[in-house]
Amino acid sequence: MFDVSFSELLVIAVVALLVVGPEKLPKVARTAGAIVGRLQRYVAQVKEEVNREARFAELQQLQQEIHQSAQDIKLAVEHESDALEASIRTPSRPSKPKAATSETTKSKVPTSKTPKAKSAAGPKTRSKKPVS
User: Fold this and answer.
1) Is-above-0.85 flag for pTM?
2) CA–CA gap between residue 75 and residue 69 (Å, rounded)
3) How does pLDDT run across 66-87, given as a tens digit for each residue?
4) Are 32 and 40 spatial neighbours (Cβ–Cβ below 8 Å)?
5) Biggest alpha carbon distance in the chain?
6) Distance CA 65, CA 83 (A)
7) Contact 70, 77 (CB under 8 A)
8) Within 13 Å, how many C-alpha atoms sit on residue 108's CB side?
9) For residues 3 and 69, what is the distance between their CA atoms, to the nearest angstrom?
10) If DSSP codes are grouped into helix, strand and coil, which group holds residue 34?
11) Are 25 and 16 in contact (CB under 8 A)?
């Protein structure tokens, strides 16, 4: 804390002996030691409190970063899910016409039970080509 050499301590001790006197010097030394000890403990508590507050601030910042990352991931997943649902509902390539099922074939193809309708032009005739 302070840079005090042995010669400086010796000077302080001699001055204290002259000012306080030899009878009260032990009591003053104990009191000064107790005050210095309390001061050191107080400084240590303040340092610990500052360190605790710094760690707490770092943890809060980390918590906010994690929360923000979680929100970003959630939004990305929702966006991808919406895009996937949209692609399933509306295919990107044109769809092929559906193959005729038996139900649609029945309604379009006349069966032997239903009479054929004749056209107004009459029966179709084919021209025969000469076979050579």
Assistant:
1) no
2) 10
3) 999 999 999 999 999 988 888 8
4) no
5) 155
6) 27
7) no
8) 6
9) 50
10) helix
11) yes
C-alpha to C-alpha distance for 42 and 19, rounded to whole angstroms: 29
Distance CA 57, CA 59 (A): 5
> Any idea which residue has 């649902």 for tokens?
85
Beta strands per DSSP E along 29-83: none
Query: How far is the C-alpha of 16 from the C-alpha of 32, rounded, in Å?
Result: 12
Residue closest to 41 by CA, chosen among 52, 53, 49: 49
Tokens of 78: 């929702």
State how far the Cα of 35 lies from the Cα of 29, in Å rounded to an integer. Answer: 10
Q: Residue length, the chain?
A: 132
Whether 13 and 22 have beta carbons less than 8 Å apart is answered as no
pLDDT digits (tens, 9 = 90+) for 89-102: 876 555 565 665 55
**Helices H / strands E in the chain, number of each:** 3, 0
**Measured distance CA(29)–CA(16) in Å, rounded:** 9
Q: What is the CA radius of gyration of the chain?
A: 51
Could you give the 3-state DSSP secondary structure of residue 108?
Answer: helix
